[in-house]
Amino acid sequence: MKDDPSTVNGAETLMLGEMLTLPQNFGNIFLGETFSSYISVHNDSNQIVKDILVKADLQTSSQRLNLSASSAAVTELKPDCCIDDVIHHEVKEIGTHILVCAVSYTTQMGEKMYFRKFFKFQTDEVFLEAQIQNITTSPMFMEKVSLEPSIMYNVAELNTVDTSGERASTFGSRTYLQPMDTRQYLYCLKPKQEFAEKAGVIKGVTVIGKLDIVWKTNLGERGRLQTSQLQRMAPGYGDVRLSLETIPDTVSLEEPFNITCKITNCSERTMDLVLEMCNTSSIHWCGVSGRQLGKLHPSSSLHLALTLLSSVQGLQSVSGLRLTDTFLKRTYEYDDIAQVCVVSSEVKKIKEEVL
């Protein structure tokens, strides 16, 4: 950073800045890729802290995965020292993924402290790899291998490279396939905007398209093969999906804070929803429980602003939301929606002054 003319003078003397850290929303990662992240917990204070436990979880639409290399607590962490970890995860689902990093420790006064960070990324793209093998006894010329997407997707072929401003095949200028040789063709599919915004549309077994393969034999005879519609299993969200749009990182003890929820009807029928808010031992909802949300048509969504407060310090789980469909008298329960770090007003004030 000292030698980089694009950085601010003296930036190398400061601690890790935003240029080297993940933003809370850091874009997209592709299905099939491996998500890797370096986690560093640094003791900025002038005191030794004890029993440090660092936990990294990845929350997907269907499960919560623990990515931490070790579940054992570190005995102590001296001032200006770090605890480092590198995590990896192969992305196997589409939709929003949230990396939750939680840290707990004990001060010299014996007080237990907690904090956590959320980092979110999307996996909207789907990669399709097609392996084509020549099982004949003579070479063949591959005239065309293309993917015709379904109406829900746009496709981009990833079988060319940019050479001097022109697109050239990754297989070279001669597209001959020798006997028993195999080639891999890669395509990227992304949901069209009108379908991506409706979570209930792309669910279950969905059609992504079909392959069209055209070749010629060594005598010039043309052959063609068109596959049936290729299918994939999209992640399921049940009849009603509840997701968090906004939530603060840190809140004050016994002070109200706001969150925004998104409710999506993933079923094929209209629902008449009623919202109930059930208090837990630490989380208390503000407002009227049993509120009528009205009718929600299939594949439609609504945004809901809610207010709550916590009566207990530390890392608290937001739970207790219930949605009831009055048509079928069916209740959907939503617990452990997210976690929020609750601190005393004095601690938060000192933190804000330091920042």
Which descriptors apply to this entry?
355 residues, mainly beta, six-stranded mixed β-sheet, five-stranded antiparallel β-sheet
Task: Reconstruct the topology from this structure.
Blueprint: E1 25-28, E2 34-42, E3 49-59, E4 64-66, E5 74-77, E6 82-90, E7 95-106, E8 112-123, E9 126-133, E10 140-149, E11 153-157, E12 160-163, E13 166-169, E14 176-177, E15 182-191, H1 193-196, E16 204-217, E17 222-226, E18 230-234, E19 240-246, E20 250-252, E21 257-265, E22 271-277, E23 283-286, E24 291-296, E25 301-310, E26 314-318, E27 321-325, E28 330-334, E29 338-343, H2 345-354
Parallel strand pairs: 1-8, 20-29
Antiparallel strand pairs: 2-6, 3-4, 3-5, 3-7, 7-8, 9-15, 10-14, 10-16, 11-15, 12-13, 16-17, 16-18, 19-21, 21-25, 22-24, 22-27, 23-25, 26-29, 27-28
InterPro entries: TRAPPC13, TRAPPC13_C, TRAPPC13_M
Pfam families: TRAPPC13_C, TRAPPC13_M
Protein name: Trafficking protein particle complex subunit 13
Calculate Rg over CA atoms.
26 Å
Tell me the span between the first and last alpha carbons.
22 Å
Largest sheet descriptor: 6 strands, mixed
Mean pLDDT: 82
Shape assignment: flat
Count of individual helical segments: 2
| Protein structure class | mainly beta
Beta-strand proportion: over 45%
Report the strand count: 29
Low-confidence stretches: 15-20
Proportion of residues in helical segments? under 10%
